[in-house]
TrEMBL record:
Protein name: 5-formyltetrahydrofolate cyclo-ligase
Any Pfam family the entry gives: 5-FTHF_cyc-lig
Record flagged with keyword Cytoplasm: no
UniProt similarity note: Belongs to the 5-formyltetrahydrofolate cyclo-ligase family.
Binding of ATP, residues: K4, A5, E6, F7, R8, R126, M127, G128, Y129, G130, R131, G132, F133, Y134
Originating species: Candidatus Geothrix odensensis
Organism ancestry: Bacteria, Pseudomonadati, Acidobacteriota, Holophagae, Holophagales
Keywords from the named record: ATP-binding, Ligase, Magnesium, Metal-binding, Nucleotide-binding
Residues bound to substrate: E55
Reactions the enzyme catalyzes: (6S)-5-formyl-5,6,7,8-tetrahydrofolate + ATP = (6R)-5,10-methenyltetrahydrofolate + ADP + phosphate
Gene3D superfamilies on file: NagB/RpiA/CoA transferase-like
Cofactor dependency: Mg(2+)
BP GO terms, sorted: folic acid-containing compound biosynthetic process; tetrahydrofolate interconversion
Length: 185
């Protein structure tokens, strides 16, 4: 069995190997699905992320809806892992990520939170880069905020090692569309 670090490196290399045109087309399709979701649910306050490396590019959705409030994460603390949230303008922050210049909210004041990841399973568990920022956030998030894991279809339906501190998302969004997940009560 691979270690988590090896698994992450494998997943990142797999995503990096996708042709740029394929990633761009998939990102456009994801933005179209996101547009329908937000219009159908009347969401106008969205927690998003700026693309890093070969990640999904949500910038077309942000550009298409300047009247919506887009909140982005900023690393507030690494120990414990904590994000703060703010709107544009963005600047280069820790690890080269684009982050809001001013981030005043520890819980994003949103209706929809888009969650990045390297891989997602069918129960909504994810594996990110291993620092725990989104797991810490998901553990504190009010139930009324819809949480959606966003990635390429090639990143979906894969096994994810789940630990007690891992929190699933409520839906998955890829170029194939939006899928709401069953929750166990």
């Amino acid at each position: 069995m691979e270690t988590k670090a090896e698994f992450r490196a494998h997943l990142k290399a797999r995503r990096d190997a996708m042709p740029e045109a394929t990633r761009a087309a998939a990102s456009e399709a994801i933005c179209a699905h996101l547009d329908r979701l937000c219009r159908n649910r009347r969401f106008t306050r969205i927690g998003a992320f700026w693309p890093f490396g070969s990640e999904i590019d949500l910038r077309p959705a942000v550009t298409a809806h300047p009247d919506w409030l887009w909140f982005f994460p900023r690393v507030a603390s690494t120990r414990p892992p904590r994000l703060a949230w703010g709107t544009e303008p963005l600047e280069k922050g820790q690890w080269g990520l684009m982050e809001p210049a001013l981030a005043l909210h520890f819980l994003p004041p949103v209706e929809l939170l888009l969650v990045p990841g390297l891989v997602f399973d069918d129960e909504g568990h994810r594996m990110g880069y291993g620092r725990g920022f989104y797991d810490a956030l998901l553990a504190q998030l009010p139930e009324e905020i819809l949480t959606v894991g966003v990635g390429f279809e090639a990143q979906m339906h894969l096994p994810v090692p789940v630990e007690p501190h891992d929190w699933p998302v409520q839906a998955l969004l890829s170029e194939a569309g939006l899928r709401f997940l069953e929750t166990e009560d």
